Amino acid sequence: MCQHQPPCPTADSNDREAARLTAHHPEQGWSLLCNGVLLFEDTGELLPDGQIIAPHRTLRSGQVMRAA
Length: 68
What we know:
Layout: E1 21-25, E2 30-33, E3 38-40, E4 45-46, E5 52-53
Antiparallel strand pairs: 1-2, 2-3, 3-4, 4-5
């Protein structure tokens, strides 16, 4: 999919999120990367082959989430 040089990381590589943005829709909460990955604002991903990557947002040091 990537047509520029140097080419973006492929959708199956560990650094796939480093690919260039092709479309960015923050009002809808998603972006399309050059390698075909749909990246969601909650850090979840949908790969071109249909594989789902669960959100992987990291907590800052000392930040604790508690149920209400």
